[in-house]
Amino acid sequence: MTRQWIADRKVPGLGLLVLPSGVRTWYLRYREPTGKQQHHRIGRAGSVNATAAREEAHKILAAVATGQAPTSARQQRRRAPTVEQLLQRIQAEHWRKLRPGTVVNNELIWRRHLLPMFGGMKVAEIQQRHVADWFHRASLERPVRANRCLDVLSKAMNLAELWEL
HSE-up of 23 (CA within 13 Å, CB side)? Predict the structure, then answer.
């Protein structure tokens, strides 16, 4: 058996993809306002029935009709750079402008303080409350070091904004 597409008769673009393993998944095929064709996974047929799949498909199609592109937005969030990737760009483009002693100190701050807390997060996900919680904990141990770390993080976020990350 090969992959099989079973189109829904009520909602255009909605269908059930049946894999050779027997797994059945609801998908919606549509074109974005830019003309790019997208496939939006709605859910497995065991957990999402036809009625729920149709309702979700109508919501997505309504969003597309108003100029939104839900699948592209999700893909952009997934591809968004992490703080660790931001650090790599800072090292390549910004640190060459700094004094050697500052670079050594910044490396230490990133490795010991910032990467353990923020390294895996997406740059766009970092909110003020994340920084405030981290700063509160860090300032209880070493207030001067926490202030310096905050300066380094602030500069990094300003660069991320400048680079439109």
Answer: 6
